[in-house]
Amino acid sequence: MIELYTWSTPNGQKASIMLEELGLPYRVHPIDIGKDHQFHPDFLAIAPNNKIPAIIDTDNGLRLMESGAILLYLAEKTGMLWPQDFPTKWRVVEWLMWQMGGAGPFLGQVHHFVKFNPGKSAYAEERYTKEARRLWGVPAVRHEAACASGGAAFAHAVAAVAAGIHDLVLVVGVEKMTSQPTARVAEILAGAGDMSGEGRVGATFPALFAMIARRHMYQYGTTREHLAAVAVKNHANGAKNPQAHMRKVITMEQALAGKPISEPLTVYDCSLISDGAAAVMLAPLDRASEFTSKPIRILGIAQTSDHVALDEKDDITAFRAVRAAGEKAYKMAGVGPNDIQFAELHDCFTIAEIIAAEDLGFVKKGEGGPYALAGCTSLTGARPINASGGLKAKGHPVGATGVAQLCDVSQQIRGEAEERQLVRHSIGLAQNLGGSGATAVVTILGAA
Length: 448
Known about the structure:
The chain is α+β, with helices and mostly antiparallel strands. The chain has helices at about 10-20, 40-45, 65-80, 85-115, 120-135, 150-160, 180-190, 205-220, 225-240, 250-255, 285-290, 320-335, 350-360, 370-375, 390-395, 400-415; strands at about 1-5, 25-30, 55, 60-65, 170-175, 260, 265, 275-280, 295-305, 340-345, 425-435, 440-445. The chain folds into 3 domains: about 1-80, Glutaredoxin; about 85-135; about 150-225 and about 255-445, Peroxisomal Thiolase, Chain A, domain 1, CATH 3.40.47.10.
């Protein structure tokens, strides 16, 4: 158990965020710095510097102050968020020290002199304000494309680096969903759909994808067993992924007998309400070796769009945006569907994985279900799909999903997927979907 002594300041929140990310049990002891609780003898016995945060690790009695030291200790204690190779580990320390000794203190001084003590020192105000502006003088852009937001941000970052507008771009995806009840989450997510029509009559995404699944069944003979095969496979993969939200193996019988959500979809056909974050950094190839010994090359990428509402689509059993983005990405990469060795597909619902496999040309139209049931998409299959566990088991923190897919593909290419490592892993594809096919991003990655 970690006893955490903190307050709701940016510095104080570092430790609580770290503890949440690591999944360590902890108990919070509020130290109200507005009431000078940091000067109480009991707290000073833990943190003689009278600064929050501070911790006590009850496993060994260690008392620790200074947020940077706490972050390093927790990473070392768990072995998580802490690279094992020597150069990368020190690159992490370098950026941590920059935050601790550069960005953080300067912004704190701006806050102190400009907000709380204005007019006391013109020199201090000018100095700290100028340096803060220098440190933060980079563009920050938020991209909104529903569940494809992460992929869309990545696509724009690729364009910026390729055009020479920027040399280094950090793409971050994050979503906090579990703080809301399920009904509210469904309502918020529905806002990414056709609110003038489908939304007005109460259609949420489970209902829309249920209609898509039912039509696919009607046109191609897809069965509940086909859908369940996707769920069983992705749960099995997720159980091997230490970063997965749902590490639970299920049987075909369980999947078929799952709680009904929207016919024919059960709870096992639907992705999770998850919290999560992911990040990737882009750089020109000639600078990649500064940051990693195993750079990943972007071979092809494309984003396309389609109608939002289902009734405006020619065929709801296909996502035209996915097909178009796939074709463009293949052309850019100089490869075809048969060259893709593995893929991370946007399985917000099991039917979505089946349709994406068809739209990307992995199988003929209507054969995605039998392809999954035959085991062709398993870890040992002809073309593994969602070795991470996919949205179904790894989780679907909406803004983070598209970026996390790229992390998963990169991890496989680098041979760092441990228990989930694939035999053939030199070229992989990530497909990120927004809405019920309103937009899609397809990215093809390979080793540099």
